[in-house]
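Glycerol-3-phosphate acyltransferase: structure tokens wanted.
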Amino acid sequence: MDFFSHTTIQFYIAAYLFGSIPFGLLLAKLFAGVDIKSQGSKSIGATNVLRVVKQTNPSLAKKLSVATVLLDALKGTIVLLVALSMDVSQATLWGIAVLAVLGHCYSVFLGLEGGKGVATGLGVFIVLIPIPTLIGAVVWAFCAKVLKISSLSSLLGLITAVIAALFINNGLGVQSNVPMYIVAFIIIYKHIPNIIRLVRGQEGKVA
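Answer:
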């Protein structure tokens, strides 16, 4: 049991469990009475919340979508902020970030299924690489406005944030950039079906 009493391990477990909470699924069921896991893209993320709930209640759909983004982002942010207050190492902080995103994408509460990790990735990046993340968010917002394709806008914002971090953060406070790459890889990997549809010109737009 000494293993689980170690502070770093406790933070890792908390990060994964918090990351695993499917807020989009819970909000849609609680306030709209719909199961987003069986409709639309079947993702638990904000885009599918908007897409599915909009069919019956457009005004509620926007509110639930925004709430999903915020809560999914906070899943990683809250654990990181608590860890920061306890002065844990930078390596531990990045471990928390990776596990929070893994939890969202492969939730223990959903049989290791989950969302795409964009909002949770944003939540951990804004704590660890704030300036690059803000740059990526600007690119995402611009692309979302112009292209109206959620997946493409998210991927372009993510790639921008990673590239910006290489120039601005210079090492992220750990010995390599690997943790940041792992977070980015998880998110991109979860978007492979979207990427295939983008290449085929079949990816839908968000109205």
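The chain has one domain: 2-200. The chain has a mean pLDDT of 87.

Cheers.
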